[in-house]
Amino acid sequence: LQKDLEEVKELLTKATRKRLHDVLTTEKHKLELEIKNQPPPKLKADAEEERTSLGGYTVKINNYGWDQSDKFIKIYISLNGVQKLPAENVQVNFTERSFDLLVKNLNGKNYTMTFNNLLKPISTEGSSKKIKTDMVLVMCRKKREEKWDCLTQVEKESKEKEKAAYDTSDPSEGLMSLLKKMYAEGDDEMKRTINKAWVESREKQSKGDLPMDL
Prior knowledge:
Layout: H1 2-14, H2 18-37, H3 44-52, E1 57-60, E2 65-68, E3 72-78, E4 90-95, E5 98-106, E6 109-115, E7 122-132, E8 135-142, H4 153-166, H5 171-185, H6 188-207
Parallel strand pairs: 1-6
Antiparallel strand pairs: 2-3, 3-8, 4-5, 5-6, 7-8
Domain SGS: 137-214
Function: May be involved in calcium-dependent ubiquitination and subsequent proteasomal degradation of target proteins. Probably serves as a molecular bridge in ubiquitin E3 complexes. Participates in the ubiquitin-mediated degradation of beta-catenin (CTNNB1).
Domain CS: 59-152
């Protein structure tokens, strides 16, 4: 359009007949209006940002594996084809006690994972990510080289509550609590096994083979 306008302007300078001059003037105004109404051209960076911006729907990642070394906590997240994405599509933000992962536009979906209240502080500068075949590895650098029993403070508190529930001065109470938990969480086969053991225990009680408090 711009080139057409420049050529029309050049022809206008050479036109000597009024009819031709009027036609060229009309065409000039038409081209100027078209150019004015055109959207501004996108810069390459803007186009790239639009291409990698969030689209589709977001999936929360719940499955992961983890282990640790003296210096790092390592979280393994399986994502098919993640190695084919541009590096900037895989983002991890670290704070001293948390990190969040965002994977953009992987097979038309976005994937997120957030860990808050990490068990111990991490170094944001020393932490990083690695993209492997069908996997993202998040490397959290420990501030102190010590063993972590779990990943988050919530997990630790949950384990302590479970331990307290079974750590009683009366061994029979601890056993009963454990059996109740196994029964509540078990499948049909587990429930049948516990019921059978309970019936046999009551029968032995009635015969005097076991103390009554068991």
